[in-house]
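Hello,

Following up on my earlier ticket. Below are the two sequence lines again, exactly as submitted.
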Amino acid sequence: MKSEIIKIIFAGLFLFYFSNNILGQGNLEFNQVRVFELEGIASNTNSTIHNKLDSIQISVPPGKVLKIEFANVSFLSQVTPNTAFEPTADGSTRGFIFLNDVIISPARTNKTDMGNFPIWLSSGTYQLAISGLGSSSNPLRYKGLVSAIEFNVSP
Amino acid sequence: MRRKQFSKLVILFVLALSNLIPHVSLAQGNLEFNQVRLFELEGDTPIPGNFHQIVDSIQFTVPQGKVLKIEFARTNWRSNGISTNIQPHVPPDGTNRRGYIYVNEVMISPAVQSGRPIIGDFPIWLPSGTYKLTLSGAGDNSFSTNWKGMVSAIEFNVSP
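Thanks for your patience. The regenerated structure is below:
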């Protein structure tokens, strides 16, 4: 009697598992939020030359995908006291965030903003970098943030 | 007693079946995530000058029973004439320095033209078939320019 009840329970659990998982292939399941921060000071003697200020490698493990939903950069004067971070602009305060050398942050060019999200990445290794303009007489600190969601690909 | 056990089994079976019904009977025409596809393009303009040139192109296929949703396409450039070790790529500015990404010769990347609004809208859905991705660029009058482009997309299974 007891063993038959156990059999029934197992049969029910198996059917429930089958219906949930065998047909659930290809779904995305939230795994974690990932935030990447980049920072550096642009102080090149030539204020028109862009500088790569910081770079990091990121990995998306096998069986996971990454959805980048935000990337932006701002700058702070190292000379003017009591200033807060300001948005980058066309001209002498340009700063960008790159993914494998392609700009992903909003890029103001002729007063036009060119950002678009999301950016989906498959498993692999990628380079994130930040650049900015600055000069030895007016060094600028650039900070960037990239925010993303990592999903498990089931199964 | 046997009848009671049988009714328990029936209830469990019905519960499991009710879990199946939404997947099976209502799944027709649904999209199911298959994979992320990332395409990278790169090349130098063959000739210095601020006229447009094709720098790279690739073919890709969306298999039968799948569709592709392009959500991101961007391009940027740098001159090969100055310290490329520290020079990052910069965005096209819509005057002489223009670079675009195309699907089957139709522009899909955001395109700045001086004084004109941005062109470029996502997502772009593609059914199964073979497509050509192309990267073009125009830049420096004195040196060739290096252009980079990236297209990010999700491939879905179309459930039968």
